[in-house]
Amino acid sequence: MANTSSTSAQTSDHVAASRATLGQSPVATGSAAIPWQQRPAGSQSLLWRHSGNPVIGRHHMPGAQGIYNSAVVPYGDGFAGVFRVELQTRYPHLHAGWSNDGLDWHIEPKPIEFTGYQDQPEGVEYAYDPRVCKIDDTYYVTWCGGHNGPTISVARTRDFQSFERLENAFLPFNRNGVLFPRKIDGKFYMLSRPSDDGHTPFGDIYLSQSPDMCHWGVHRLVMRKGGDRTGQWWQRTKVGAGPIPIETDDGWLLIYHAVMDTCNGFVYSMGAALLDRDQPWKVHYRTNQHIMTPEADYEVSGHVPNVVFPCAALVDAANDQLAIYYGAADTSSCIAYAHLSELIAFTKDNSIVF
Q: 275 in helix, strand or coil?
């Protein structure tokens, strides 16, 4: 994590602007300790929800109808992020945001303006469900962008103020592009879920590699959706990569979303898997049950009910702490906590690989 006076002051300035503009309560400044609350007394839950959820409500900024499925990373002495914001048109755009503590956020009122990209199709391009991945000294942003159909768009930044657009990673149709936080054998790696123009068909996670963040190939199947043959109804319709994979001694910890179709619509839950560190298309362990499913009022009721959609995770390895940022009901942004060692052990002890 960078720790310079310029980025620290910048983060503090943005949060100060948040308090002035939005009237939010003051927040403590200082080192970027991740958000954390202890497991509630008497609880046996593997993951537990932040008591102040949602941390970003649907009306967090003027005119907003939903702020969710967004990505945050440590930056300077605080945090920065890229947020899916929908105003009254409900057309999704990406906005930069800043926080000192990962809880109290200032989100820029104007969408990110990208520079340096190819010719665009006519019309305004939608953008949603971003992820942010730091590789070396650069932050890469991936998201689902409209380019004659949904595909994975890519940009990079070093200051979360100027964003350089790169080439799209793939042809339409594709979603849930998630980068690995370092090169493996000298190459960039990205998880994705090929699809068609709809939201449901196919539903499996693939891995691709690139020498330059432009030309992607050597595609490998990583994870299939479940179904009757596996007894995995909670992930029977589709699966998709969530936060940036976390490197551990047991492999890459991947938190993913998993979808079940019902007579009353989709249910989005969370699962976890451990991928091989050197050959990450190989799955060593994968949870045979969800690690979190919609239960709280703000998860079962909203613009799209029954959704928990993880997009980012902050890790404090020294204290065995994990804070998972997730979208709730396609409406608001929330946090769930876990002990990293417990999540890894649970994944290994309750596994099915298919």
A: strand
- The Cα–Cα gap between 298 and 88 comes to 20
Task: Enter the tokens of residue 225.
Answer: 């959706």
Structural tokens at position 11: 């983060």
| DSSP letter assigned to residue 307 | B
User: Where would I find the beta strands (DSSP E) of 137-249?
Assistant: 138-146, 150-157, 163-165, 174-179, 188-194, 205-210, 217-223, 238-241, 246-248
CA distances from 351 to 39, 230, 248, 272 (A): 24, 12, 17, 9
**Considering the entire predicted model, what is its pTM?**
0.91
Could you report the per-residue pLDDT of 250-282, keeping only the tens digit for each? 999 999 999 999 999 999 999 999 999 999 999
Q: Are strands 321-328 and 332-339 parallel, antiparallel or unpaired?
A: antiparallel
- Distance spanning both ends of the chain, measured CA to CA: 37
88 CB-contact burial (10 Å; exposed 0-12 / middle 13-18 / buried 19+): exposed
Q: Is the separation of the CB atoms in 334 and 326 below 8 Å? A: yes
Contact between 321 and 339 under an 8 Å Cβ cutoff? The reply is: yes
> 331-345, pLDDT tens digit by residue?
999 999 999 999 999
Q: What superfamily does domain 5-349 belong to in CATH?
A: Glycosyl hydrolase domain; family 43 (2.115.10.20)
- Rounded CA-CA distance 342/347 in Å is 9
